[in-house]
Design goal:
Peptidase_C1A_papain-like, alpha+beta, five-stranded antiparallel sheet, disordered N terminus, globular, binds 2-acetamido-2-deoxy-beta-D-glucopyranose, two-stranded antiparallel sheet, 358 residues, cysteine-type peptidase activity, disulfide bond
Length: 358
């Protein structure tokens, strides 16, 4: 049932805000259809609101966003489609405040264990005496990637990106896919990290190396989306996944491709509000975006679209599984100059090496 107050108020909102065309009955009709659509969206995403005022406010935001999505798609300028998803009742400002900005951008990419920096061709990978990487790679298909997780309202993308690289590296080395604990990193890695205010994936990997491993999510406890007291005592009787070393790669798409052909790699991008409206009907994300990196994600593959011929990265995000393609998305590869689309290679990608446990 639609509360009466909601219909009246939103009607008022529509009439008050529509300056161009349309008779009142048309607006009523439009409003009713939009409200039906909102209710279907709420049901699909299991959303409820504490009271009618909040529901009305969210309906207004939803309506505004749906209109933006439809207008943008009609204009066709993006080359891909925007769509509704779990975030369609958030304003751009709310979205940015909650899900973007979990990375403290810096130019300092040498926070890696002494003696372990290097790998895949300091400069030109083609000069390395190794076979060229395959044309396409998707580590999800090798079952080397856990489902996309949800950082919640906490700027902890740096922990999620780092942990995802360890999960995949551990699988590739040992054939065992485990959910490892972002919460442990968020609670315990306080070495120039800022918790829910942001941090660096390379330092998180460094912490795992320094502390001889990371706990599984099952043993440390579930992710709660806020920083709590670090409890390393839980480690005494629990299984740790260890890493042998932390590596960074040169900041180029060639080097990233070569590294990703071996294992998933954490990178930094500029996330912006167009990403808010990326859903599973969207194609390859092509921006627009700049290169002021503010978000950490993991590249888990790459390929080329058979129809359009557009090259892409397959990227694991930490905005839950209802965003994008089950939490993953495709980003254009080899575009927008030497820093890559959204600055994907403006900083060095990082990954851990995990040894085979004998
Ligand atoms: C994606 O967006 C389109 C257009 O808004 C919508 O029709 C579709 O239901 C959305 N898909 C999901 C899974 O939410
Ligand atoms: C990073 O380096 C660029 C170019 O040297 C500079 O313009 C920018 O201000 C630096 N950013 C930070 C956060 O230090
Ligand atoms: C990891 O956690 C997710 C979400 O709870 C679950 O679906 C998945 O089966 C777990 N394990 C692995 C190995 O992905
Ligand atoms: C998107 O997700 C919806 C709901 O899960 C599904 O019905 C639809 O087939 C999906 N579309 C694509 C293009 O994957």
């Amino acid at each position: 049932m639609v509360p009466l107050a909601l219909l009246q108020l939103s009607c008022f909102f529509l009439l008050a805000s529509s300056s161009a065309g349309g008779s009142a009955p048309d607006n009523d009709q439009h409003n009713r259809l939009m409200l039906d659509r909102f209710h279907r969206w709420m049901a699909f995403h299991g959303r409820s609101y504490p009271n009618d005022d909040e529901k009305l406010r969210r309906f207004e935001v939803y309506r505004h966003n749906v209109e933006y999505i439809e207008r943008t798609n009609r204009d066709g300028g993006l080359g891909y489609q925007l769509g509704e998803n779990d975030f369609t009742d958030l304003t751009s400002e709310e979205f940015a405040a909650r899900y973007i900005g979990g990375l403290i951008a810096n130019n300092d990419s040498k926070v890696i264990s002494e003696g372990y920096v290097a790998d895949v061709g300091k400069n030109d990978p083609s000069k390395l005496k190794i076979p060229p990487p395959p044309k396409k790679v998707d580590w999800r298909k090798e079952h080397a990637v856990t489902p996309a997780k949800d950082q919640g309202k906490c700027g902890s993308c740096w922990a999620f990106a780092a942990v995802a690289t360890v999960e995949s590296a551990h699988y590739i080395a040992n054939g065992k896919l485990l959910n490892l604990s972002e919460q442990e990193i968020l609670d315990c890695d306080r070495n120039d990290q800022y918790g829910c205010e942001g941090g660096f994936p390379d330092r998180a990997l460094q912490w795992i190396w320094d502390y001889d491993g990371i706990m599984t999510e099952d043993s440390y406890g579930p992710y709660v989306g806020e920083q709590q007291a670090c409890d390393l005592s839980r480690r005494a009787y629990n299984y740790l996944v260890t890493i042998e070393s932390v590596w960074s790669i040169p900041a180029s798409e060639e080097a990233l491709k070569l590294a990703v052909s071996r294992q998933p790699v954490a990178v930094t991008i500029e996330a912006n509000v167009n990403m808010q409206f990326y859903n599973n009907t969207s194609g390859i994300y092509t921006g627009p975006c700049a290169t002021l990196v503010n978000h950490a994600v993991v590249v888990v593959g790459y390929g080329r679209d058979a129809v359009s011929g557009v090259d892409y990265w397959i990227v694991k995000n930490s905005w839950g599984s209802k965003w994008g393609h089950n939490g993953f998305f495709l980003m254009r590869r080899g575009a927008d100059g030497p820093r890559g689309l959204c600055g994907i290679v403006s900083t060095q990608g990082v990954y851990p090496l995990v040894s085979v446990i004998l």
